[in-house]
Design brief:
Blueprint (H helix, E strand, L loop, with lengths): L3 H17 L4 H5 L1 H12 L2 E2 L8 H5 L1 H6 L3 E2 L9 H7 L2 H27 L6 H31 L1 H11 L6 H11 L8 H8 L3 E2 L2 E2 L3 E2 L3 E2 L5 H6 L1 H10 L1 H12 L4 H22 L5 H4 L8
């Protein structure tokens, strides 16, 4: 914030400068120049430092011509090729568009169900909602087919897509979502960095001996990647005997169903990292060597 005394001193400097040098272009700008400079600094732009703030008013355009405006380091755009690939990854844009359409479809289906159950809703509204729902369903199906075809056009994406579909519990839709978020990551990242990026890592809230809250997942990073693991984990505890055994073992240790499901999702992410790195198909016995599948 600019103090009141500072603004008054700038107004006095304006009047003095206007009387001494009326042709000074900076005098016509007045205190607005200083205020805009302060606002710009607050937004993260670094100006070349001067001996005093009011010197910029007296020097005028000569100082402005030599002043270089540099963005703050945190505002610099990473233009490396790896960042460009992550930003312009076609399956990612298509997958996220599909996720948004799926949310719209669920919302529209709820509206249609409520309209059909209400006696005050006109028939034309119910029919319009039904037509919109059918049209949106056709769009989603068409875009899903195009997403699968897009993944199969590239040799590397096709290989990873085949590996993902080979994991019990992951279908083509989930494979597209996972591949869209994982394919553009730095190949030098570790599996712990993958977990941290997905927000599935545990976050502990402790402070001395008085604060010791229950641990939860951090929910930081890529929410699309975290959301893409939910359905594979939910289906995997039913279709994959190793994931089911791991899920039941966690429940036997007094974990809630949601905690066990999140742990399964994290295990799936570890498995995906392993098959991508080793270029080997999924083997549940290697991922869960100490888990018994017979009860």
């Amino acid at each position: 914030m600019v103090s009141r005394r500072y603004r008054q001193s700038q107004q006095v400097a304006q009047r003095v400068d206007r009387d001494v040098n009326p042709s000074n272009p900076c005098a016509a700008l007045g205190c607005g120049l200083q205020r805009s400079a302060v606002d710009t600094d607050r937004r993260g732009l670094a100006f070349a430092p001067g001996p005093h703030a009011h010197d910029r008013l007296h020097i005028g355009h000569q100082r402005l011509e030599h002043t270089r405006i540099q963005p703050a380091p945190e505002l610099l755009i990473d233009r490396s090729p790896r960042r460009q690939i992550a930003r312009n990854h076609p399956p990612r844009a298509l997958s996220r568009h599909l996720a948004a359409l799926t949310e719209d479809h669920a919302w529209l289906r709820s509206r249609s169900h409520a309209a059909n159950g209400s006696a005050t809703t006109p028939r034309c509204v119910r029919e319009d909602l039904k037509r919109s729902l059918n049209a949106l369903s056709k769009r989603i199906l068409r875009l899903r087919r195009e997403a699968v075809a897009l993944c199969r056009q590239d040799a590397e994406l096709a290989r990873k897509f085949k590996q993902l579909v080979g994991i019990p519990g992951i279908g083509e839709t989930s494979a597209v979502q996972l591949l869209a978020e994982l394919a553009s990551l730095d190949p030098e990242m570790t599996v712990r960095q993958w977990v941290a990026l997905s927000g599935l890592d545990p976050a502990h809230q402790m402070s001395g001996t008085s604060v010791h809250r229950r641990s939860r997942i951090s929910r930081r990073g890529n929410r699309h990647l975290r959301r893409a693991h939910f359905m594979p984990a939910l289906v995997g505890v039913r279709a994959n005997p190793y994931l089911k055994a791991f899920y039941l073992a966690l429940q036997a240790r007094h974990k809630t169903k949601m905690q066990a499901l999140i742990a399964v999702a994290r295990k799936l992410l570890h498995a995906i990292y392993g098959i991508f790195k080793t270029n080997q198909p999924f083997e549940g016995a290697k991922l869960f060597p100490a888990t018994h599948t017979h009860f």
